[in-house]
Write a structure and sequence with these properties.
696 residues, alpha+beta, five-stranded antiparallel sheet, 17 helices, 37 strands, 22% helix
Length: 696
């Protein structure tokens, strides 16, 4: 093994000067704020190394945070453990197999050593880094001192985990065997192994209080041993038949409880005095539990930290209530956490280790106490994309941009239901496919600004929304009546909306009545599938209902009437805005019915009179002319266009009816005799032919 010392150790005050609070990232879940201290410019793993070198000129990359100097590996970090005195951090990684030790008081790397085989796990045998024991993938156990490799030996079969008993001086190793190997460090030789009832073990642990040794098997069994008598104390079955074996084990500081994790992602808490679990917690991911840790917080509550390869969950061991969770985005290999503090480090399948700080769990350790000041200056930052230089697009978006021919090339990277593409290529394609998108966006923003200024005027008209007017009318009518149905038009149970929860008043849904992207197309096939019982209204019927219940409202309130009438033809293609006339029309519009039958006789007569003006009366049969020399005023009225404004409602309607009767029976220029009935006849070929007026 080769050893390399760090030539330049960076002091703590230099690290504080290099840290920029604006580079921190904040994650908040369940009201608990978690700060990502090691946040930096994120690049995909499959990005070229040349692109990564360009990040050195990036300002954001230069402001990245390095809490500890050189806390990275060429490919990934596998294990991370803290020395018993809390002053040194020891991390193993790949490739090549190597181990690094960091002096936390100086925030820098102390030494780095390369090994001949991959490190499975390791254990600190002293208070600092002076004595270390490593289990390697070549069935060897390597002992390191301050100067480097000291001694190595081999086990009969591959070892998987080890633990050191300070009371007896034995290094207990478990692996793919039914025996527990004991290597006594005082005598320097192997002792008689502990016989077990299990076939093989995955992990082991020892209680720091009374020294009880426990090993978890691949069959889901937990077996405890008394190292003083060197025999088994008890065996319990912890997992179900289809759950797999146990993958993690941890004793609490009191020595009365033990926590185990299975391959199925289930954590069980046991009291040593009972064979039944006190609490069962499912990680809800289905991945094996990698590590379990008990954590004492500043609020006096002891919580359990369970980790799988995807997420770290912190929850209360007494109630099982979740406290918060952390999902770094890469596969997790190990967790290192400082007790009574809120700092944790994650060894992952990534070049850098992730560092997270949760102030509510505890204050920062002494060697990084400056984090307390940095978190106070932290501001939330929203991440719109997964990667900074790449954008996720779907197949539909590629078709719109005209880039579907790039599928299968290096320009697109397949991911889930879409592809990753370079942001620069996306911007160029967007500019070509939609050259006027910026102008449209600018006009839209200017229009929104003008609409906001109009709202501050004294007279504000209540207008129908530009988008989803039918939906807004139904919601507005229901809120006005104070009744909200629990069932929609399809008969589906939609629940009851709480008071003050109207969609029209909720800012979260304001864009649904403003943006064209949220417009409901009732003619779409997907809408018809989701709403099979929705009323099918024709386009003309929908327009008739809209005009029946809403009044046309002009947005140009300050334009004179003459200018509005002259520009009416030019703006005929623009959308018309309608506002509900009154509550009666709003209710009828919600029900989808025309209100002619519900109107009074006076109003219906007006509507019918307006319709008859546009229809041409067809006159057939005999005609008769008469002359009344009686009342001159009456005949004068019959000869004029009657209206209710001049003669009153009742008299105007009577006069107009008489005028219509006269128009039906009399007209100038009518012919008398049979020609008036049969029409003018023509002689064709010696035979009479009827004209148009002769038809019946």
């Amino acid at each position: 093994a080769a050893e390399a010392r760090a030539h330049h150790a960076r002091p703590a005050h230099a690290a504080m000067a290099a840290v920029d609070a604006s580079s921190l990232r904040l994650r908040e879940l369940n009201g608990v704020k978690v700060y990502e201290v090691s946040s930096s410019h994120v690049a995909p793993e499959w990005a070229k190394e040349k692109n990564k070198r360009k990040l050195r000129k990036d300002a954001d990359y230069q402001r990245r945070i390095e809490l500890v100097q050189d806390l990275n590996f060429p490919s990934s970090s596998t294990r991370a453990k803290l020395s018993p005195d809390g002053q040194f951090l020891i991390v193993s990684g790949l490739p090549p197999p190597q181990v690094k030790c960091y002096d936390l008081s100086q925030l820098s790397m102390k030494w780095s050593r390369h090994l001949d085989a991959e490190v499975v796990t390791f254990q600190a045998l002293s208070e600092d880094y002076a004595k270390l024991a490593f289990i390697c993938a070549d069935r060897s156990i390597r002992f390191h001192a301050k100067f480097g490799n000291y001694y190595q030996t081999r086990t009969p079969k591959q070892g998987r985990d080890l633990v050191y008993s300070r009371n007896t001086g034995d290094l207990c190793v478990v692996g793919s065997s039914s025996e527990v190997w004991r290597l006594n460090l005082e005598q320097g030789r192997f002792l008689a192994p502990l016989e077990s009832q299990c076939e093989e073990f995955n992990v082991c642990g020892i209680s720091p209080t009374h020294g009880l040794f426990a090993a978890a098997s691949a069959d889901g069994e937990l077996e405890c041993f008394d190292l003083r008598q060197r025999k088994s104390c008890g065996l319990i079955q912890c997992t179900d038949a289809d759950e797999g074996g146990l993958t993690s084990l941890r004793f609490d500081s009191n020595g009365m409880n033990v926590a185990v994790g299975s391959e199925g992602g289930i954590v069980r808490l046991y009291d040593l005095r009972s064979s039944h679990p006190v609490r069962v917690k499912d990680q809800m991911n289905g991945f094996p539990i990698i590590d379990l840790k008990y954590h004492n917080s500043v609020d006096g509550v002891r919580r359990l930290v369970s980790t799988d390869k995807k997420i770290v969950k912190i929850w209360d061991e007494r109630t099982g209530d979740p406290y918060t969770s952390i999902e770094p985005g890469y596969e997790i290999n190990d967790l290192c956490m400082w007790d009574n503090t809120g700092l944790m480090m994650l060894a992952m399948e990534h070049t850098e280790m992730s560092v997270f700080f949760t102030p509510t769990l505890g204050a920062a350790p002494k060697w990084c106490s400056f984090l307390e000041n940095l978190t106070e200056e932290m501001e939330e930052q929203k991440n719109e994309t997964i990667y900074d230089d790449y954008r996720f697009v779907t197949v539909e978006e590629l078709d719109k941009l005209g880039l579907s021919h790039l599928i299968g090339t290096k320009m697109l990277r397949a991911y889930m239901h879409g592809y990753f593409m370079d942001n620069r290529l996306y911007g160029k394609a967007k500019a070509i496919a939609e050259p006027f998108s910026y102008d449209d966006f600018k006009k839209k923003k200017v229009k929104e600004k003008l609409d906001e200024e109009r709202k501050s005027r004294i007279t504000v008209k209540k207008k129908a929304p530009k988008v989803n007017a039918l939906l807004a009318a139904r919601l507005g009518t229901a809120d006005a009546e104070g009744v909200v149905d629990d069932v929609d038009e399809d008969g589906d149970d939609v629940g009851t909306i709480a008071p003050g929860g109207s969609l029209l008043e909720d800012d979260r849904f304001a864009a649904m009545f403003k943006e064209k992207e949220f417009e409901i197309d009732e003619e779409d096939e997907q809408y018809k599938v989701l709403h099979p019982n929705a009323p099918k209204l024709h386009k003309d019927t929908r327009r008739e209902i809209l005009e029946d219940h809403f009044e046309l409202v002009s947005d140009e309130d300050d334009v004179p009437v003459e200018e509005v009438t002259t520009t009416k033809k030019k703006t005929s293609s623009e959308p018309k805005m309608y506002a509900a006339k009154d509550e009666f029309h709003a209710n009828a519009f919600k029900d989808g019915r025309v209100t002619k039958a519900d109107l009074p006789l006076k109003e219906r007569a007006k509507m019918e009179r307006a319709n008859e003006k546009t229809k041409q009366a067809r006159v057939t049969g005999n005609r008769e002319a008469f002359f009344d020399a009686g009342d001159k005023d009456k005949m004068k009225r019959l000869g004029e266009s009657k209206n209710s404004d001049k003669y009153g409602d009742e008299e105007g309607l009577t006069a107009e009816g008489a005028w219509k009767d006269q128009a039906k029976g009399h007209s100038r220029g009518s012919r008398r005799g049979m020609d008036g009935v049969l029409g003018k006849q023509k002689i064709v070929g010696g035979r009479p032919v009827k004209g148009k007026r002769g038809k019946k």
